[in-house]
């Protein structure tokens, strides 16, 4: 039976790509976009729910469906204030997972990062590690933590400063072999495809590594 998907972060790169995929995926009949501003998507499948994501609990009655895709995230550069960073990278995914539990939604996915640890001395790494730890504690049956390394964008994207960084990552990826392979860059579209696939097909592991993301994304394509 086609599923109802909830997406947080549809205005971001990966969330936007995921939304595009699900619009054209017959496995998904409805897509609820929880967003603080208009997403620009227009399709019969789309239901846009504008709300304050920092107070997502106020939208509990609308937070119903079959699978949640949490593509929310920020960076140190975009959010230098640590309190706000914590509210976004820990708080939003955690509240979304709690609402999933309360509303009996049995599939939850969130984008984290490679190399996280809830015991790290580094605030940003530790925040994501704590988020992963506490979401897994909720025991939602099909919980998947996506753990990419550097996320590359669309092929036609040339944001300020990113063109050179993408070229550097291509060169760096070439030398990342053996135990360093897990740090190779990942295309945002690969993450989106892997998430769309996992929304339908279960996986035996909760932590989806950088390498596994790429494998699963190919399964979606096939």
From TrEMBL:
SUPFAM superfamilies for this protein: NAD(P)-binding Rossmann-fold domains (SSF51735)
Superkingdom of the organism of origin: Bacteria
Classification via SMART domains: Semialdhyde_dh
Example of a GO MF term: NAD binding
Pfam families referenced in this protein's UniProt entry, alphabetically: NAD_binding_10
UniProt domain Semialdehyde dehydrogenase NAD-binding: residue ranges: 4-103
InterPro entries: NAD(P)-bd_dom, NAD(P)-bd_dom_sf, Semialdehyde_DH_NAD-bd
PANTHER family according to UniProt: OXIDOREDUCTASE HTATIP2 (PTHR14097)
Name used for this protein in its record: NAD(P)H-binding
């Amino acid at each position: 039976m086609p599923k109802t998907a909830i997406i947080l972060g549809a205005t971001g790169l990966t969330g936007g790509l995921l939304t595009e995929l699900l619009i054209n995926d017959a496995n998904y009949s409805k897509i609820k976009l929880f967003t603080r501003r208009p997403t620009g998507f227009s399709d019969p499948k789309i239901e846009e729910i504008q709300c304050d994501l920092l107070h997502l609990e106020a939208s509990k009655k609308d937070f119903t469906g079959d699978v949640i895709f949490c593509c929310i995230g920020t960076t140190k550069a975009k959010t230098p204030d640590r309190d706000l960073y914590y509210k976004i990278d820990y708080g939003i995914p955690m509240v979304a997972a709690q609402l999933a539990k309360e509303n009996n939604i049995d599939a939850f996915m969130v984008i984290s990062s490679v190399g996280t640890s809830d015991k790290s001395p580094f605030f940003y790494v530790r925040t994501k590690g704590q988020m992963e730890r506490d979401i897994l504690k909720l025991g939602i049956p099909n919980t998947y933590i996506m753990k990419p390394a550097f996320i590359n964008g669309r092929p036609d994207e040339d944001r300020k400063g990113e063109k050179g960084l993408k070229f550097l990552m291509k060169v760096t990826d070439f030398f990342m072999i053996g135990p360093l392979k897990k740090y190779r860059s990942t295309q945002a579209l690969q993450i989106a495809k892997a998430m769309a696939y996992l929304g339908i097909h279960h996986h035996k592991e909760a932590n989806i590594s950088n390498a596994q993301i790429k494998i699963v994304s190919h399964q979606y394509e096939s």
